[in-house]
Design goal:
By secondary structure, the protein is mainly alpha-helical. The protein is globular and about 35 Å long. Helix 1 runs antiparallel to helix 2 and helix 3 packs across helix 6. The chain has a single domain, classed as Recoverin, domain 1 (Orthogonal Bundle). Strands 1-2 form a two-stranded antiparallel sheet. It is built from 6 helices and 2 strands; from the N terminus they run αααβααβα.
């Protein structure tokens, strides 16, 4: 399954373009721009499964760094600062990774 099966290409393009500048990525703004925050729990879970590249049940720091590339192949990697801020925003239990429930809560907070 691809992100474009769940989200509009035009929304993905707009969201990627809005955070092209270094240190401009904000997960809540991004989720709202791609329309993810308006999706059903099942659709959000499908996106989570795409982002969980190693199928561990969690989105870890290395997967967060390449977050944008899951939406658009040519997108930039997140900076170390953006990755850390993203992790802090989503990691509610402090275990250093984002689980499904944490991801869903972060998306819905957008």
């Amino acid at each position: 399954m691809a992100m474009t099966d769940l989200l509009a290409v035009s929304d993905i393009t707009s969201a990627i373009n809005a955070c092209q500048a270094t240190d401009s990525f904000n997960p809540k703004v991004f989720f709202a721009m791609v329309g993810l925050s308006k999706k059903s729990p099942l659709e959000i879970e499908k996106v989570f499964r795409i982002l969980d590249q190693d199928k561990s049940g969690f989105i870890e720091q290395d997967e967060l760094q390449l977050f944008l590339q899951n939406f658009s192949k040519g997108a930039r990697a997140l900076t170390a600062g953006e990755t850390k801020a993203f992790l802090l925003a989503g990691d509610m239990d402090g275990d250093g990774k984002i689980g499904w429930e944490e991801f869903s809560a972060l998306v819905k907070a957008s």
